[in-house]
Structure formats: C-alpha cells, structure tokens
Amino acid sequence: MAEAPKVELISIEEGFPHSTVPTIFCDGIANLAPSPHVVKFYLFRQDPDQTGKPKYKNQILAQIVMTVPGFIYTVLLGEQALKQFVEQGTIPQETIDNIKSSIQKQQ
Questions:
Q1: CA torsion sign, 67 to 74 to 20 to 58?
Q2: Please, are residues 58 and 30 in contact by the beta-carbon 8 Å criterion?
Q3: Per-residue pLDDT tens digits for 73-98
C-alpha cells in the first residue's frame, strides 16, 4: 500500500490570502461521493424564492474533489476547531447537539 502523502499547511503571507483567492459562500454540503482514492462533495446554498414566497431551493454551486488523506485531515481539523469554538463560547454546544440530532433523523 502506498504511503499517505505528507500534509503541510501553507502559510498565508502577512496574515491575509492573496486577492485572487476565490471566496465561496455556502450553506452546507449536499452529498459525499467517496472512492478508494478521492472524495467528491458538492457545496450548496439555499436560494430564496424570487417572488417573495417563504420557500427555498438548494442550489449546487461547487464540486470539491480531495484525496482521501486530505479529506480525513480536513474532517479532523474541523472537529478540532469545533471543540475549540465550544470551549471559547463561540458556538454553543446546544447548536451542535441540535444539528447532530437533525442529521441522525435523516439517516
């Protein structure tokens, strides 16, 4: 089995990303499509009805393709950040618990 590639953090010059780095706003991940070597997932945003009706449509806006080690690293980094956010009071634990409960109901 091939050795997993080394994951390195890229430093951001002077604390800011370059002006050409795209910014993508999304409301979440629509789905995941794993394979032995890569994980694909689609970002979505919720667009409101243009007539003013109280309904929304999930629109796919980007596809992300990552190596499996890169995906694992990203998930673990997110878990670590989430723990810190709760400890710092940035995100209430109740918010996380509610989202976990919602996900479990969907499965």
A1: positive
A2: yes
A3: 999 999 999 999 999 999 999 999 99
